[in-house]
Amino acid sequence: MESTLGAGIVIAEALQNQLAWLENVWLWITFLGDPKILFLFYFPAAYYASRRVGIAVLWISLITEWLNLIFK
């Protein structure tokens, strides 16, 4: 487990140091991965496309947020 975490740190450092010109792209990706965006953007878009998929996205986001709170 320690080696996996260490490798993740090395990769994050390499991305930050060698690809500094992509900072705005990484900020945008971080914004899109924020859990609040699930409820504000992904759920309505999925619900508009298909009611069944929209409700599945809502349940998945609720369960992942709940598990995140439990395991922290």
Automatic annotation (TrEMBL):
Keywords: Membrane, Transmembrane, Transmembrane helix. Signal peptide: none annotated. The keyword Transmembrane helix applies. It is found in: Membrane. One of its GO terms (biological process) is gluconeogenesis. GO terms for cellular component: membrane. It is a multi-pass membrane protein. The chain crosses the membrane at residues 25-46, 53-71. This is G6PC3 isoform 3. One of its GO terms (molecular function) is glucose-6-phosphatase activity.
